[in-house]
Amino acid sequence: MTIPGFNPITLKIPAKLNLYLHAGALRKDGYHDVTMVYQAISLYDTMTISSSIEPHTDFTMAVTGIDSDRIPVDARNLVIKAAKRLAGHIGITNATLHFDLVKSIPTEAGLGGGSADAAAALIGCNYLWNTGLNETQLMEIGAQIGEDVPFFIRGLVGIGTGYHRPVVPVDVDPKSMRTWYWVLGIMPRGLSTKLVFEKSDEFIDRRVRRGEVISSQSEQLAKCLKVDWGNTPFQLLVPELANNLQEVAEELDPDIEVALQAGREAGVIVSLMAGTGTTCLFLAMDEGHAEALVGALTERGIFRRVVRAVGPVEGVRIIR
């Protein structure tokens, strides 16, 4: 399949946080039983995609912004993997694409930046190549790249159950949707997802040896599906917010516990770790409260960066 040249496009790429995350046992396929409730938030990367005809398929990229020196720009990057996966799916053999990625979402922070960028590659290439694939089809391709990738196709709120499994979109009524006001404390160091899950396996093994009953993924999913995550006021959902990897990450990096406690002392509604860490999430009552928290938490000198964000927001979108 051949394609014409086209003008560059730019995409706006949100971060995510997990309102709920429960990591369970290691499956036979090497992945974990995970139940997650996603919310897309207004911390954005941007990516410009340009293309021209070449006699072979070639994908290149450049990265600037936060943590850019830690991000590979070769075939290891999920952006390149996503473009190649989509090209193979539709039979494109002669496209040259270049991705200019500007990072605001930190790496190894539990905010899904790499997966979000991969979703942007799928959406951007789908548009440029005029493939005609719909959101559901793009989500299916995204699930082959990473467990968080499908969520960013639509954004807002969704429920995920792990790698190679679909994300269940949560209905969000624009008329009743409530804004969540977040303050994000970006820690000086990140934690690799692999390391956190390896430590989680140790935690689970210890619990099993003590005779504790480990809840199944079906039980966790049933619990999440009973909650109206998209339209309920956040004040009523506070008891549901949880992340069972937080204890794991705190053992790997005790500074996380110190940082979360700083949030509680500053008067946040909830202190919670993002994903597999290490970003600390602080829920505020409103915009003014969030602004005050940014100042108070910045003064503590614990974080390398403190930013505000709101959610839920839409997934990846083409802006020009």
Automatic annotation (TrEMBL):
GO terms for biological process: sterol biosynthetic process; terpenoid biosynthetic process. Keywords: ATP-binding, Kinase, Lipid biosynthesis, Lipid metabolism, Nucleotide-binding, Steroid biosynthesis, Steroid metabolism, Sterol biosynthesis, Sterol metabolism, Transferase. GO terms for molecular function: 4-(cytidine 5'-diphospho)-2-C-methyl-D-erythritol kinase activity; ATP binding. Its EC number is 2.7.1.148. Residues 240-301 form the GHMP kinase C-terminal domain. InterPro entries: GHMP_kinase_C_dom (IPR013750), GHMP_kinase_C_sf (IPR036554), GHMP_kinase_N_dom (IPR006204), IspE (IPR004424), Ribosomal_Su5_D2-typ_SF (IPR020568), Ribsml_uS5_D2-typ_fold_subgr (IPR014721). Residues 77-155 form the GHMP kinase N-terminal domain. Belongs to the GHMP kinase family. IspE subfamily. This is 4-(cytidine 5'-diphospho)-2-C-methyl-D-erythritol kinase.
